[in-house]
Design goal:
796 residues, Immunoglobulin-like, elongated, eight-stranded parallel beta barrel, alpha/beta, 18% strand
């Protein structure tokens, strides 16, 4: 028997809900001491539901015995407490499937209304931005799991002329009350305690080596030892590969629920709590919370292999799109009379999909333009959230805390984090970070207690506009976990140096190559952040792979294996042939051996520079996306975009590249205090070819000498098109430990000259460009470095 109680206590909408005798005699004081006001909370013999809506005039809770039924088993009106609506239902528990329907100013409640009708309807969206529609069943923003995707074949989530009265009560995803019963391994207590104490060996703030990767794509094509490809479990089954490579953390592309057309990468989230069921080996999401337990198992496995888990979170926008049908293409004309092809979406402002936030309180959750009909688009993909308004600001922190405390996530990368620093209701202006959720995140006591890694993609769709890049805050209490930032200048400088023939004095913003290699103090030192707050990368998901970076002059985003929709349906909104960065600083070098040499240079650049290296998954064995630099779409979720392990296994040169990256990571770890100092101000000197302090930076060769180290390290870089002879520091016995030139990577076939040809006993699957135990002793006072290569010497 069900008993429903409309509970409301206190005036603080975000306070905890405490028991009083008047509330419900059946509830004990202990049961509600830690009751969270928002979301589903198990209490004794029932569940309390809490959901935010400032603008709603009525919200009903619908309970479903069969989540696919078009009618609920029970329907209850909720009670408003300020801006939060509550209901306690006794007699239900784990496994309960539920959803909400809401009425508001654009669609007031009418007692005669029934699902599929228009009683009470005024307009799809009014001038205040309200989009209430009781025909659309809404998921709980705080639900820990959804039972499946929305069934578009049964009913549309869309509004507008032809869709507003179509009921989704049976078709919609149902929120599920879950309680995980996963038992963590014995290792996990040690891991969590050590991470809190900051004593986990090899995981200091300055010791991170991060590997960005897609959960599904990592194993979907199959690899030996993976029994559940393309899933959280499959990812955990392949954890040993990451341990062998030597990375200390994986940065997972978004893992939260997304719409069925939410794209391959997963940046169109419709929940910030529920894990994506599509990545689960067990889709039974009932009372045993299979998807939650499986995610935990993956985390547990990675931790047992010494690998932290970071999650890419997307709080700047949601996946509640429009219907996004075909576009109408037309020719426009510029002032000089040239023709430009342009396009317009055929859907009007009345057309929008109601999954959750938009139907509960569009105005409170989203950044609306003046007039309330349309959305700000500093995200470039629409649906920009109102990150510094109370409900979204609170949800962000609650979501992060849940992932850290319940799922044991170690860190986060924030997509387009610049959006979270915008002034509320004035989205063209960057606010003082101290006033925003950016400061809340790094100062949060729970996140600080766990030493949670916090990293920003520090821009918006508008680009690197000031003062966002480099302007993210440090903690206000001295905790080291201030904002790290993806260093786009590091990426651009290294690409320009190797592919566009720029020099060491070339600047990107305020940063030169010298600054980029030593932690970009111009960007991070001003507010007492450290070199490791600079996330140094050359390639990530958003752009070329490293192999493509040295193989294509221009992006190839039209009809192809990673954008097949353009082959069949060029008017589709997913066929974005002009999407993706156009100034890639890429180059087709032609010769395959030279491409590998340039890739080794890029890897060395990341792994010897001060800061935190960020590697893009698959680059270590030369994965290609066939020149596509924006492989995000739903149609790109295919075998050509997933890791093709057969290629890795079949070719010697791919194994050698993997081994090179593995050895370079080991080299970095062996010299971590030199190559990744904790603070700015370490002892090194920039030298010219004559071993004099560098004064002329308009050259393409340079040496950096780490002289106050044991052993000393001399890094000789020559990106000229001919040999350069460097004078070595005197009084030191030097041995060569790294040389990126192709000679050591060639000669593994009968008609090739090279190191393998001269040493036929060498294993062709092991790199010959690194000698961690010391290679040749350098007897001369000089060393000649071939064109486009890097040599690292160690003192002995």
């Amino acid at each position: 028997m069900l008993f429903a109680l409309m509970a409301c206590t206190g005036t603080d909408d975000y306070a905890r809900l405490y028991h009083t005798e008047a509330l419900a005699p059946s509830l004990t004081q202990d049961a509600v001491e830690d009751l969270q006001h928002l979301g589903p909370t198990l209490i004794d013999d029932g569940v309390n539901f809490g959901v935010y809506s400032d603008r709603a005039e009525r919200i009903d809770l619908l309970l479903f015995e069969d989540p696919d039924d078009g009618e609920p088993t029970q329907r209850f009106e909720m009670r408003r407490c300020g801006e939060v609506w509550n209901l306690y239902v006794e007699g239900i528990g784990v496994g309960t499937q539920y959803g909400f329907v809401a009425w508001g100013p654009n669609w007031p409640y009418d007692p005669d209304w029934i699902p599929g009708q228009l009683d009470g309807f005024v307009v799809d969206v009014d001038s205040d931005g309200n989009r209430f529609n009781p025909n659309k069943l809404l998921t709980d923003p705080y639900a820990r799991a959804l039972h499946r995707e929305h069934d578009w074949g049964r009913a549309s989530l869309g509004t507008g002329e032809s869709r507003r009265q179509e009921s989704t009560w049976g078709a919609a995803s149902k929120s599920t009350v879950v309680a995980s019963d996963y038992t963590w391994s014995d290792n996990e207590d040690f891991w969590v305690d050590s991470r809190k104490a900051g004593t986990l060996a090899g995981h200091g703030w300055n010791e991170q080596i991060v590997y960005e990767v897609h959960v599904k794509g990592f194993t979907q094509n199959g690899i030996e030892g993976v029994d559940h490809p393309g899933t959280y479990r499959g990812f955990g089954e392949h954890a040993a590969y990451l341990a062998e490579l030597g990375v200390t953390a994986v940065e997972l592309l978004p893992v939260h629920e997304k719409p069925s057309d939410g794209g391959y990468w997963g940046y169109n989230n419709i929940s910030f709590f529920a894990n994506n069921l599509g990545y689960s080996a067990d889709r039974d999401n009932g009372e045993h919370a299979a998807v939650v337990d499986e995610f935990k198992w993956m985390v547990d496995q990675l931790h047992q292999h010494g690998v932290e888990v970071w999650v890419d979170v997307v709080y700047n926008h949601t996946g509640e799109g429009g219907l996004w049908r075909d576009k109408l293409y037309y020719n426009d004309y510029t002032e000089d009379g040239s023709v430009v092809e342009d396009a317009v979406n055929l859907d009007s402002v009345e057309v929008a999909s109601l999954y959750s936030f938009r139907g509960l309180d569009n105005w409170s959750y989203y950044a609306l333009e003046e007039g309330g009909l349309t959305y700000w688009n500093n995200t470039g993909v629409g649906n920009e959230t109102r990150g510094n308004h109370t409900p979204m600001r609170t949800l962000i922190l609650d979501s992060l805390r849940y992932m850290v405390t319940e799922l044991h996530v170690d860190g986060f990368r924030f997509d387009l984090a610049g959006i979270l620093g915008e002034q509320d209701l004035n989205y063209n202006e960057w606010d003082d970070p101290a006033n925003t959720v950016l400061q809340d995140i790094i100062d949060d006591p729970i996140l600080q207690e766990h030493n949670t890694r916090i990293t920003a993609e520090p821009w918006t769709a508008g680009g690197y506009y000031n003062p966002v890049l480099g302007a993210f805050p440090n903690t206000s209490n001295g905790h080291p976990g201030g904002w790290g930032e993806w260093n786009g200048h590091f990426r651009d400088l290294w690409r320009s140096m190797l592919n566009e023939d720029t020099d060491f004095g070339h600047y990107e913003g305020a940063v030169s190559m010298g600054g980029a290699m030593t932690g970009s103090s111009e960007m991070y030192g001003w507010n007492e952040r450290n070199p490791w707050h600079s996330m140094n990368f050359v390639t990530v998901h958003d752009g070329f792979t490293m192999y493509d970076l040295v193989s294509f002059d221009e992006k190839q985003n039209d009809c192809g294996v990673l954008n097949p929709v353009c082959c069949d349906d060029p008017t589709s909104s997913w066929c974005e042939t002009e999407s993706g960065e156009s100034h890639n600083r890429s180059r087709d070098w032609g010769d395959e051996a030279f491409k590998r040499q340039q890739m080794r240079n890029f890897f060395v650049g990341m792994l010897v520079s001060h800061g935190t290296p960020l590697l893009y998954g698959g680059d270590e064995w030369m994965r290609t996306q066939y020149g596509n630099n924006n492989a995000y779409s739903t149609w790109a979720d295919n075998e050509w975009n997933w890791f093709r392990w057969g290629e890795w296994q079949a070719y010697d040169e791919r194994h050698r590249m993997f081994d090179f990256v593995k050895q370079m990571i080991a080299f970095r770890k062996a010299h971590i205090d030199v190559l990744s100092p904790y603070d700015y101000g370490s002892d090194f000197a920039w030298k010219d070819a004559a071993n004099q302090d560098a004064t002329d930076w308009s050259v393409r060769h340079m040496a950096v000498h780490h002289y106050d180290a044991d052993p000393q390290i001399d890094i000789l870089m020559n990106f000229e098109d001919g040999d350069v002879t460097f004078t070595l520091p005197e009084g030191v016995d030097w041995v060569r430990v790294v040389d990126t030139q192709s000679w050591f990577d060639e000669g593994d076939s009968e008609d090739e000259e090279g190191w393998f040809a001269e040493n036929d006993e060498l294993d062709p699957r092991e790199t010959q460009n690194v000698w961690l135990d010391g290679g040749d002793v350098i007897d001369d006072a000089t060393y000649t470095v071939p064109a486009y290569s890097i040599v690292i010497l160690e003192s002995r």
